[in-house]
Amino acid sequence: MSRTDLADNKIFFFEHPDDYEVPDSVSSLQETLLDFFCTVIDRLGIYHEDAFEQPSYLLPILQVFDERERTRITATIERYETIKQRALALQKRHDREREWVDFFYERFFDPLASIFDMTASDSRWAARMKFYYDSFEYAHDRPWSFFSNQFRRESQQTARLTQPIPDLAACFSIFDFRTDASQWPWARWLKDVMVENFSRATLERLGKHGLHPSATGIYHEGRQEGIDPSNSVCYPWLIVEHKKVEQRGTTDCYCRAANDAAAALMMLRRLARYSADNVIPPVVTMTTAGEVVRIWIAFFDRNQEAYVSAQPPPSEGGLL
């Protein structure tokens, strides 16, 4: 699958945000992703990476904080330095893609998920917030079988687009209390109205009317087989693609991410038909090509001609 194949299906990506005018919803999300207020770099006023490696420069700045805060900031800097050195070692050894994938899971994705895991030490308020609002599920290397060639044709897309198989997708949970309520710590205190839109019963019912919340197509009409609990996820909101740095590897990684994101947007476009305001929210995508990490924002825009005229040559990179 090439960049030309994507463009033929009206899927475009650009490296420079200034190449086009984005909708307000995208600008708002972009501002949120770039909000570094109260982070270590913001609090210290240091925006150059080398400064963190110069004690003579860093120590006088730390003196303005009390001992407890200095300890916390120093531990954070040391942790970031460890991550950096590990990435540099992988790059120097030209390690395989699997090593890079393990690195990002260990250092970023697993810690992110653990923040929202309920623990025995959580207060009632914290546990309730995690259960109803913050928890999510990861799906690894899961084929998005819903996007078959038939579905592509129905959506006026060509068969040259491959079936998405993201390295990782963060999705919303589907609440299914009829099968095994023990896996839901708050099931006994469940407020049905708070999870109704993400319940299996509601999504199965809406599936009969053309709503498809799952990229694996688990709620297709006429389904006879059971549903694996690991497939009870819906509407991916973060998509990750990894690639080892090699010739054409970076561009291939971007193309795969664009294909994945376009598929997620197609699901949200169908969902918007049931919405009063008909707004299609953007999707965040992350690509890692070796140590190079990019965060992309994928969005649907009806003004396709603007992107056709702004499309860079096939040899250049791009940003969704």
Description:
The protein is an alpha+beta fold and 320 residues long. The chain folds into two domains: 3-23 and 97-310, no CATH class; 36-93. It has twelve helices and five strands. The protein is globular. Residues 313-320 have low confidence and may be disordered.
Concise description?
This protein is of the alpha+beta class and 320 residues long. The protein has helices at 3-8, 24-33, 40-44, 55-62, 67-93, 97-115, 124-134, 149-154, 192-195, 200-207, 249-272, 304-310; strands at residues 137-140, 168-173, 233-243, 283-289, 292-298.
What is the helical fraction, as a range of percent? 40-55%
Number of helices: 12
SSE class: alpha+beta
Q: What summary fits the major beta sheet? A: 5 strands, mixed
Q: Tell the overall outline.
A: globular
Spatial strand order of the main sheet: 1-2-3-4-5
Radius of gyration: 22 Å
Low-confidence residue ranges: 313-320
Q: What is the H/E order? A: HHHHHHHEHEHHEHEEH
Strand residue percentage: 5-15%
User: How many strand units?
Assistant: 5
Mean pLDDT, rounded to whole units? 79
- Terminal CA distance reads 17 Å
- Domain count: 2
Secondary structure blueprint with pairings:
Blueprint: H1 3-8, H2 24-33, H3 40-44, H4 55-62, H5 67-93, H6 97-115, H7 124-134, E1 137-140, H8 149-154, E2 168-173, H9 192-195, H10 200-207, E3 233-243, H11 249-272, E4 283-289, E5 292-298, H12 304-310
Parallel strand pairs: 3-4
Antiparallel strand pairs: 1-2, 2-3, 4-5
